């Protein structure tokens, strides 16, 4: 069966940045099951998978901004060192966290530290970076009506 809208697809994939900048996240391999045509996958990945058969592999290069990030510097925020969950040093590029009003940890990337202030970038950690995805289609099946209804209820998840 070919990958097409309203299919549930099991994928095996890796992702790696195209640059040599620090990347403090796992690159895979990962395995996921997702619904095609319901905004679960990034559009460029979904487009590359359409029409593929079980067992096929595809490589996709996602350019900066493919994750929907805003590249403007408007999200740069000065934070007091005391408000940061992790204790120093806070070197540029490091991922740190701050507790929001709902008591959830919010990640940010350190841009610079100036004394007791840390300049934080709250954009997606993958902002302004290109990534290479290597994706193998493991299984394709028609989604159940419940899966389609659930996707419609919960909306897209990126």
TrEMBL record:
It catalyses: [protein]-peptidylproline (omega=180) = [protein]-peptidylproline (omega=0). Keywords: Chaperone, Cytoplasm, Isomerase, Rotamase. Transmembrane segments: none annotated. One of its GO terms (molecular function) is peptidyl-prolyl cis-trans isomerase activity. This is peptidylprolyl isomerase. Belongs to the FKBP-type PPIase family. It is an enzyme of class 5 (isomerase). The lineage of its organism: Bacteria, Pseudomonadati, Thermodesulfobacteriota, Syntrophobacteria, Syntrophobacterales. InterPro entries: PPIase_dom_sf. PANTHER family: FKBP-TYPE PEPTIDYL-PROLYL CIS-TRANS ISOMERASE SLYD. Its EC number is 5.2.1.8. One of its GO terms (cellular component) is cytoplasm. It is found in: Cytoplasm. It comes from the Bacteria. It comes from Desulfosoma caldarium.
